[in-house]
Design goal:
By secondary structure, the chain is an all-alpha fold. The protein has helices spanning 37-50, 52-73, 90-115, 117-124, 128-161, 171-195, 198-219, 226-234, 237-244, 255-278.
């Protein structure tokens, strides 16, 4: 009589094909893409076109610039454009409209700090400088395009009303006017990034824009402070835009004022990048 054989040990089932062998690194089946500035730009473009603040601020900007510009243009005559370009009717609207771009520039960055979504943004993109750079690029592109279209539309409308009124080129004022208000918006964005508070940053920028137009009246009462007051008045936002639109031909075309604003904006942007890397979220 034969002795029963002990049962053979069962072999372990083979690991599925997707499962890595012990001791080796795991490879995710999900494709991994190296992030770059283009991803950050796409993200910021999605944000700026999705939030309601963009629609309201840019809508108000267009309403002020184009609406007031058209109202001024229809009340002018050919003689009014003997020594000024056809874009002059946009000047008054821009004085008010620039406040809309200042507000939008602040909200582009400060609103994320207010809601706490900035933590999600920096988690998805740990390179903070890339996020801020994308915000600056997208905001400038939007602000400059909208401003140039508004000023150019007013210039075309005015030129159609007074076809024989002026031979002064006005295309340059479209570029310089749009650049000036867009740089103000970028300065606001940098201030918003540094202060991280919407109300504080907007108030600061209102002071930067309005105080140089108000203080000279008091400074020029004193003989010792008169020179400071005159210089402050020369580079105030109102005076700068007036020179850009050639309302004061004897004082230049606004290039000096535009250069000063570009320098101040560049310094503020550099400070915003430095503080962004050094401070906690």
């Amino acid at each position: 009589m034969s002795t029963p054989q002990p049962p053979m040990p069962q072999q372990a089932a083979a690991a599925p094909a997707w499962q890595a062998a012990p001791g080796t690194s795991y490879t995710s089946p999900i494709p991994v893409t190296r992030t770059h500035l283009g991803h950050a730009l796409h993200s910021e473009w999605t944000k700026i076109k999705s939030v309601r603040s963009t629609m309201w601020t840019l809508g108000t900007f267009l309403l002020l610039v184009i609406g007031i510009g058209f109202l001024v243009a229809v009340q002018t005559t050919d003689e009014d454009f003997g020594d000024v370009p056809f874009t002059v009717p946009a000047f008054i609207g821009l004085l008010l409209g620039q406040l809309c771009l200042i507000t939008l520039g602040v909200l582009v960055v400060s609103s994320e700090y207010g809601t706490g979504m900035i933590r999600t943004t920096f988690t998805a993109s740990p390179q903070r400088h890339r996020v801020l750079a994308a915000k600056l690029i997208i905001f400038f592109a939007v602000a400059f395009t909208v401003s140039a279209l508004a000023i150019g539309l007013i210039g075309l409308f005015t030129a159609s009303l007074h076809s024989g009124g002026s031979d002064i080129p006005w295309v340059g004022t479209v570029f310089m006017g749009a650049l000036y208000v867009s740089l103000l918006g970028m300065l606001s964005l940098a201030v918003g990034s540094m202060l991280r508070h919407s109300a504080g940053a907007i108030t600061t920028m209102l002071g930067v824009v309005l105080l140089p137009s108000i203080l000279p009246a008091f400074l020029m009462m004193s003989e010792t402070l008169r020179t400071i007051g005159e210089k402050m008045q020369e580079y105030a936002a109102i005076s700068s835009l007036a020179r850009v639109f050639r309302l004061d031909n004897e004082s230049g075309n606004g290039a000096a004022q535009l250069g000063l604003l570009a320098g101040v904006t560049a310094a503020a942007v550099v400070a915003a990048f430095v503080l962004l890397e050094r401070r906690d979220v």
